[in-house]
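All the exercises in this workshop are built on plain-text protein records. Sequence and backbone structure share a record, each on its own labelled line. The question running through the whole workshop is how a given chain folds. The record below serves as our worked example for the rest of this section.
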Amino acid sequence: MAYALITGASGGIGLALARELAARKHDLLLIARSGQTLEKLASDIRQQYRVKVDILAMDLAAPNAAQAVFNWLQSSNYSVDILVNNAGFGSWGLYEEIPESEFQGMMQLNMVTLANLCRLLLPMLKKQEKAYILNVSSTAAYQAVPTLSLYAATKAFVLVLTRGLNWELQGTSVSASCLSPGPTTTGFIDRANLGRIKDRAEKFSMSAEAVANIAIKGMLAGKPEIIPGLTNWLSAKLAEIVPKGIPERIARNLYK
């Protein structure tokens, strides 16, 4: 029996992905900081979908977090056939003014823990008849975003790493997909201190449930890049072909 391991599963896209997989009768391992919240969600999902759900409450921004997760899997004799690296956060502000704890935590969580989980779990995933990695990035990965410079850079890392992994894994039982959502109805805007653009962003937001549905379909199809929503897809692809200064100037004016 194999589980889907989902980080950042206590709300937003992570929770929606968990419910989407549970609806497909996939057993779950959910990881987030709040054990109390996870316990409640796990109970709800078990009752609604009749699947097995176990939880691990921990701070994935801590050094060696990925190794701690791997040790938990080993000691509990869990087998994983889907790895969803969803946990991450952004912090708005001038690069030099981001608090040290958030600066380091953002890089650790968004990049280091994600990369290490992929590395540590790949041998286990390759033993499965079919297995999947889904790394959550953002449409911010496709261009620099002034005042979200570090966040956008971490998400660009996720995108490039996942595409490289997908090529390396061809011919194996594992595929790697990168999910790059645009504005989504989650707590991200509040967490990133972007409340001043909340009304504007919500006009273009997709629901977390809609994003999750598209994400899981794309992951199961082995797509290397999944960009939910036509507007988001067009903006990401235009950012790849027009001079970089154009989308960056738009982003600067949007977030300044």
User: Anything to note?
Assistant: The CA atoms of residues 144 and 248 lie 6 Å apart. The chain has a mean pLDDT of 91. Strands lie at 3-7, 28-32, 53-57, 80-85, 131-136, 174-179, 225-226. Residues 3-255 form a domain with the Rossmann fold fold (CATH 3.40.50.720).
